[in-house]
Amino acid sequence: MNVELNFAIKTPGTLWAKALEQVAATAKKPEGRGDAFVYFIGNRGSGKSTLLNRFLYPSRAETPKPSEGVEYTYARKPSAYDHERKDLAHIWELGGSQEFMEEIMSMDQLFLTFKQVTTAVVVIVVDLSDPSGALASAQFWLNQVKKKLASSYEKFEKKGHQLPEQLRQRAKVKLYGSNDDKDLVWHSGISLVIAATKYDAFRNEDPEVKKVMARSLRYLAHANGAFLTYLSGLQVTGGGATSAAETAAEAALLDNFSRLMNHLVFTGLEKKPSLKLNPMTDHLAPLMVPAGTDRFRDIGHPRGGHSGSQDSRSFLEQGMQEWREMFERTFPGAREREARLNSREESGSKFRIPEQYNEEEIDMARERRLGELEAYRRDLAAASEAAKKKMLMAKLAQQQQQQQQQSRDPALRRKPGASSSVASSSSSRQSSRA
């Protein structure tokens, strides 16, 4: 009977067999990777809003207003493992002045917090229509990401957690597993994308100028484990293409960017992205270089440069310095742009509300509330100090009272054990009489 029942259960197509298949399929499903956290950062006017708009709404023609502050939106997509559930992505665009963006990025509650790093995606937007500032901008915002990641990872490491190293190893294995440079590259542990926009304004530059731009950005992206792509035609109408082939190329790059972002946001680095376009490294055309597909030997060195150090950190710093110097010789004003970015960071200048947005009544109410809060804190500290003094005085009074009682009562002044010794000697005398 048991044999017949077992055969009936395992017979394909039966109700029992289907139930068993569903249970097995459910057991294989992962629990889910959690919500994704996506950030678009970069200099003001670099095209962050337009690029984000094209990612979310590929067919929309309108141009969004420039962002001032923090813009939040979200995206949802049916889960790849459970079609009854939708994966959620929280998307922020940091706009406005450099000081404001730095202030936001330094906050513990918003940018790359220790709760977000597992599923974080950062898109650094670089403006190719301002070529002298492109490399400095990309490097500056990349350094901001590095600083915040170090702070978030430190919280894990202080508690003995291995998550930061696990995230770095995930990126190394999934993206650079077969790459010769895997031990030289800095692996952030998150998904990094450098999107160089407005290529249509840079397309007609001298080939040597385009070569220096391409190889400098390739080196920076490869050294930091980032995806690199040129983009243009972000405006659906009037993208700047001069031929049907260029229009088709722009559309293909935008579609490829959307595919890449969908993978990084909703699948993540657990699986290597599968893109429609093959890597494009020819400096005479738009670049599209997925992380893990480039190599330092293919990028090469500027004339007269040679990064001979075998230490990974020294190798990367020396190579980046060589390309930075070549970039500064090629693009007048590049050194000044970099110095201006870094001087603001070193000065520690904080964000200030522009004069046109000042509201005197609100400012006065805020100052009044801050004054009340400070007074409350002072009163609280004084009350706490008074309570401590009161407890100390009560304890001293109690000790003095005990000392006075001992001085008045001779029995209390006997040494410990005196009464017991008197009692024992009395009992011994009674026993001797008996």
Distance between the termini: 94 Å
Number of strands: 7
Low-confidence segments: 26-30, 416-434
| Number of helical elements | 13
**Oligomeric state, counting identical vs distinct chains:** single chain
Helix/strand order, N-terminal first: HHEHEEHEHHEHEHEHHHHH
Protein structure class: alpha/beta
Keywords for this structure?
434 residues, alpha/beta, seven-stranded mixed sheet, extended, disordered C terminus
Produce the secondary structure layout.
Blueprint: H1 2-10, H2 15-28, E1 36-42, H3 48-56, E2 70-78, E3 86-94, H4 98-106, E4 120-127, H5 134-158, H6 163-176, E5 191-197, H7 207-223, E6 227-230, H8 244-266, E7 288-289, H9 296-299, H10 312-330, H11 334-347, H12 360-408, H13 418-433
Parallel strand pairs: 1-3, 1-4, 4-5, 5-6
Antiparallel strand pairs: 2-3, 6-7
Helix pairs in contact: 5-7, 5-11, 7-10
